[in-house]
Amino acid sequence: MKSQEIRQKFLNFFEERGHMVVPSAPIVLKDDPTLMFNNSGMAQFKEYFLGNAKPKSNRITDTQKCLRVSGKHNDLEEVGIDTYHHTMFEMLGNWSFGDYFKKEAINWAWELLTEVYNIPKDILYVTVFEGSEEENVPFDQEAYDIWSTLIGKDRILMGNKKDNFWEMGDQGPCGPCTEIHVDIRSAEEKAKIAGRELVNGDHPQVVEIWNNVFMEFNRKADGSLEKLPAQHVDTGMGFERLCMVLQGVQSNYDTDVFSPLIAKVSELTGGKYTMKAKDDEEEKINIAIRVIVDHVRAVAFAIADGQLPSNNGAGYVIRRILRRAIRYAFTFLDKKEPFIYELVEVLSTQMGAFFPEITSQKELVKNVIKEEETSFLRTLEQGLHLLDNVIKQTEGKVVSGVKAFELYDTFGFPIDLTALILREKGYELDEAGFDAAMLEQKTRSRAASEVSTDDWTVLVSGNVEQFVGYDQLENEVKITRYRKIDSKKDGKLFQIVLDSTPFYPEGGGQVGDTGVLVSANDTIQVIDTKKENNLILHIVRELPANVEGTLVAKVDVEARKQSMANHSATHLLHQALRTILGTHVEQKGSLVAPTHLRFDFSHFSKVTEEELAQVEAFVNDRIHDHLPLVERRSIPMAQAIAEGAMALFGEKYGDEVRAIKFGESMELCGGTHVGNTSDIWQFKIVSEGAVAAGIRRIEAITNKAARQFYAEQEDTLKELKAVLKNPQDTLKAVVSLQDENAKLKKQVEQLLKEKAKNLKGDLKGQIQEVNGISFLAVEVDLDAAGAKDLAYELGNEFSNLYVLLGSVANDKPMLTCYVSKDIVESKGLNAGTIVRELGKHIQGGGGGQAFFATAGGKNPAGMADAIAHAKDYLK
């Protein structure tokens, strides 16, 4: 059975049983501050389990892209080493929100596996929760009794809290679970040891394929459990493992999920993948290929969903995954050129039907991966040179772990590659020193980001919260719940939820509102507003004296006005770019703040000055056309798209959406906007540049910031005119000044050359004969060009010359070294080496060729020492 059919049969099965089929949420989470990535099928449904929102159906089924490379669920280091862990994997799931429970979930799971997929019953085992006195949760008798009607009791195993009590984090919904495991070993192996002995034992052919979680509890901040108001079912089946079972192979990587990618890697690298490696060398190649085909899926889908590789946050995780794949190819497949980007075409063919984003974003994904490969391969090459230097400076055969950590931390050079190279050269790595340096860094990082969160204090139960900030910026409110959070970074803060808030929470690129909560006795500053699990959180440093009283919520009107202007301008900018540069342009990220806007977009080349001028004019024309806002707050998604609204990849939309229209610009957007484009006042681009391969960034200002910009430009022009004695034509005066300056520079250059010639005659008499070499070391009053000319002039008259000239210009010292080419070889003198060493005296450095080099510094007082030590190289 092909993987596409396996996936479809699952969705069809649950759709026939009243489940709504929903698409996968983006792999990168943008509205959940507790998670970087969707790490499980249930992540996109957290708000339903928490009771903060009502699902569109009480029964849902889907296949969810998941990524487990950070936090509690982190499988990265196992990936490639074994055959069943992955960074990105698909989680097939069926969900019940307060509807059916254990009986239906277990019976349907068994029916699907044994009657639809026809998996033999005698290779299946199940586990149920054995109970926990510590948690005061009893043995799951109900699940056990249901399973007893379906499978022999000898195949029902007890599972402990670690294996059979599922939690999504340190706090939140949780509950006992029942897992289904499959034993696909050979008959001979089964005869030696029963499968029940290997369940949850990390055996590659006795693996869990399906987990049915029964959400009954909420884990509180103090670790205690409380009953949820409703019982839910949260299930997840590993798609790749299911394919392994149904396709009769012994490894996920032998299924058609991975085999086309493996074939392409073999074609591109010459590395042959074998189902059973004969020796260590073959296994190393196998591991490398598994790492590459797994990692390219994670990286490609993350980029397609809008997350570019970067140096922090989620972007850093994606970069780290890709670099791990590049490093394995570099080390074990001897691949020194980019090639991983070519696998994206295979991914698109394989998965585009179910995940259309990988096809529509294919060229962007390829370009970004290729640039990352090229960049990291350069880093590896640089790291090899740096490692050579570390080895040269090492006394004995043990290389400092601290030095190795510097290579890893500063240059991204992988520690396992360092260890491998050292072994090949007969050295050892001080692993304890490296581990200590790594632990110190992690401890610092963890301490800086550590956050503790108290439980909610609920004052008003039920889902009474609503956002009214599209229509008003001030209203009477009551607090429905609050909690304390404590972080090393920000100290003690409180999160407040209001019954009816005008504060816009950070989202869609727009920053959260600030403002105040006012009562008769208090004025509480709201320093930020965020959204988490469908709750709008108002961040404050202190609580009102009376948390149950009535407050007046007041948004900072001026900041909101500026944000609105900037947000509306991004829509017009998007339209302008697609009109002028082409419809290939798509938004890839944005920041909308009161002070400025930032807009990232897909485009293959630098935007020219002429194109930027056209874009700016296009936006300003729409501003001056006084286009009114046409807002549709609740329109069916399909209708909005049919009417021409633009949706952004990587965003999660519901069935009902909000559409914003200014003239011909129409986008799906939850942000706040001006009532008329004239409120933007003026749009001014301040910069344009590259973010990544195929991604450009424009930064711009509007309204108040634009007024300030033009006022500053006018002030600068006035100051310039005053300096130029108020000429009638300022531009003509500047051009005239430049021409005059150019003429004077030429005259100065000529005078310096003549000065150098005159100086040459004086210096020739100071040249000494030392060990058969004509030697001169002296400080001269010349600039860099003059010192170079003088050195070459002297070199033309002496065939065995070594000269060091020191000079100081604008309080910056410089050394110029010339060595005749014939004595470079015969005497082993090297100008580059000499200036690097002598440059230390002037607190600087430099380099160049063996016969000519220069060094700059910042300590003129060290010049005399540098010149005094020049003769040391003649001993």
TrEMBL record:
One of its GO terms (molecular function) is alanine-tRNA ligase activity. Residues 1-712 form the Alanyl-transfer RNA synthetases family profile domain. Its EC number is 6.1.1.7. It is an enzyme of class 6 (ligase). Belongs to the class-II aminoacyl-tRNA synthetase family. One of its GO terms (cellular component) is cytoplasm. It catalyses: tRNA(Ala) + L-alanine + ATP = L-alanyl-tRNA(Ala) + AMP + diphosphate. It is found in: Cytoplasm. PROSITE patterns: AA_TRNA_LIGASE_II_ALA. Catalyzes the attachment of alanine to tRNA(Ala) in a two-step reaction: alanine is first activated by ATP to form Ala-AMP and then transferred to the acceptor end of tRNA(Ala). Also edits incorrectly charged Ser-tRNA(Ala) and Gly-tRNA(Ala) via its editing domain. Its main location: cytoplasm. PANTHER family: ALANINE--TRNA LIGASE, CYTOPLASMIC, ALANYL-TRNA SYNTHETASE. Binds 1 zinc ion per subunit. Keywords: Aminoacyl-tRNA synthetase, ATP-binding, Cytoplasm, Ligase, Metal-binding, Nucleotide-binding, Protein biosynthesis, RNA-binding, tRNA-binding, Zinc. Coiled coil: none annotated. It comes from Myroides albus. This is Alanine--tRNA ligase. Zn(2+) binds at H567, H571, C669, H673. Its cofactor is Zn(2+). GO terms for biological process: alanyl-tRNA aminoacylation. Consists of three domains; the N-terminal catalytic domain, the editing domain and the C-terminal C-Ala domain. The editing domain removes incorrectly charged amino acids, while the C-Ala domain, along with tRNA(Ala), serves as a bridge to cooperatively bring together the editing and aminoacylation centers thus stimulating deacylation of misacylated tRNAs.
